[in-house]
Amino acid sequence: MRRFEFPVDRRHAHAVNEVFAEVRRLRVLAIAATLLGLAVTASLVYLNHPWAYLLAIAFALGTVVALWVALWTPHRSSIDKLYRNGALVPAVVSETHPSGVVLLALVDVAKPEARDPRYALVIRKVRALPGHQARAGERVPSVTVRTDRTPRAVGERWQSVSAMPIAWGTRDGTVIDRARAAISETEWRLLSDNLGLADMVRRSSAKRLLLDPHQLPGGLGR
Q1: If I label 108, which of 36, 69, 88, 117 is the partner at 20 to 30 A Cα–Cα?
Q2: Total domains present in the chain
């Protein structure tokens, strides 16, 4: 897995990094769901009816999942850790809107234990993209944020993989240029040639488009 190290500007990241904001919102919602689940479960048990116990078990399971998310998200909220653990990937601006841009990224959704990489196209809507021009084809070096949505996820692919721009972690343009140069021209060209697939990715149920390994350029298929 290709990594990219640079000094993260925490103040800048806390101000513009939309992934960090999403993680904080997720934890708040998980805590609220945990408290609500505990209250409903206790109320159902207090009723002392057979049907109430069945519902209580269902709510208890949901509460456990919400609690796991609430306890797990702080481990993801470190900006430095997000950039350190992510793989360096290419992303390009595929669409521009008054409210922001849409990024099309090439990511590997295979987990470390998988035998071969499994490349896919994913999109991400972003409001701010400092250090870049809001124009179609703009090259935006990013890192992956990979997650499973359940405590006991199985399989050789991450359930969710998104791209987080390097520009959300630094104001230094030379760092962005260095990250851009570390990605092969083959990868950049693959994205540029497939900008039209962004709409297909958006309409897919999994919000990603798996690519045929046998049709990838040399060096990516295996």
Answers
A1: 69
A2: 2
Nearest alpha-carbon partner for 147 in 138, 160, 133, 136 = 160
Q: Could you report the per-residue pLDDT of 12-39, keeping only the tens digit for each? A: 988 888 877 667 777 778 788 888 988 9
**Same domain flag for 74 and 146:** no
Any domain includes 1: no
Task: Tell me which residue of 132, 144, 33 sits closest to 87, measured CA to CA.
Answer: 144
Residue 215 tokens read as: 């049709």
Reading the block at residue 112, the tokens are 């470390």
> What are the residues whose beta carbons fall under 8 Å from the beta carbon of 30, sequence distance 6 or more?
66, 67, 69, 70, 73
Q: Encode pLDDT of 155-187 as tens digits.
A: 677 778 899 999 999 999 999 999 999 999 999
Q: How far is Cα 117 from Cα 101, in angstroms, rounded to an integer?
A: 28
| Burial of 135 per CB tally in 10 Å (0-12, 13-18, 19+) | exposed
Give the DSSP H/E element, type plus range, for residue 74.
Answer: helix 50-76
Domain span holding position 25: 12-79
For the entire predicted model, the pTM comes to 0.76
| Same-domain status, 107 and 209 | yes
Q: Which residues, in sequence order, are bridge partners of residue 142?
A: 89, 165
Distance from C-alpha of 179 to C-alpha of 184, rounded to nearest angstrom: 10
Contact yes or no for 128/100 (Cβ under 8 A):
yes
